[in-house]
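Work Package 3 (structural annotation) set out to generate three-dimensional models for the target panel prioritized at the project kickoff. During this period the team completed the workflow that converts sequence records into discrete structure tokens, so that structures can be stored uniformly alongside our sequence database. As a representative example, we reproduce one entry of 153 residues exactly as it appears in the project archive.
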Amino acid sequence: MNRIRHRGKYVELLILDMSRGGRIHGYYLLKKIREETGLPVNPGLIYPLLKGMVEKGLIKAEESFEKGRRKIVFRITEKGEKYLEENKQELEIARKYFEKLKLAKEVGLTKLVARLIRIFEKIDQLTPEQLEVVRGITRELEAKLIDIDIAGE
């Protein structure tokens, strides 16, 4: 699984924005956030975040019954609306961040970064031959990426 760290506040802002349209449930949020961000979001991330948002008064949890099944649905509160309004610019930054992250995932960059992090974490355990392979791959990749690096750093 990709271990790209994203900002909890960004996800929080997306949830608030998605809840503007009325009552929403956790599964809907999981699905929408996966679609919008490309992240492998799971209930272990979303439900604690929702609980915290309820505790902060940004959203309200309500019990609902559909087809005989109990569901918890969430709706944005007045405090949540105000918070979202105060953080409009952050929401746009969050959307751009997630668009970049989704594109990075599509081109395989997130997997590459995750692999590089794993290699970095055990670099002191690599054999001299493995280090030489890493050195060669790094030089080759860097040379190819220099041509497309917009900042040119």
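The two ends are 29 Å apart (CA to CA).
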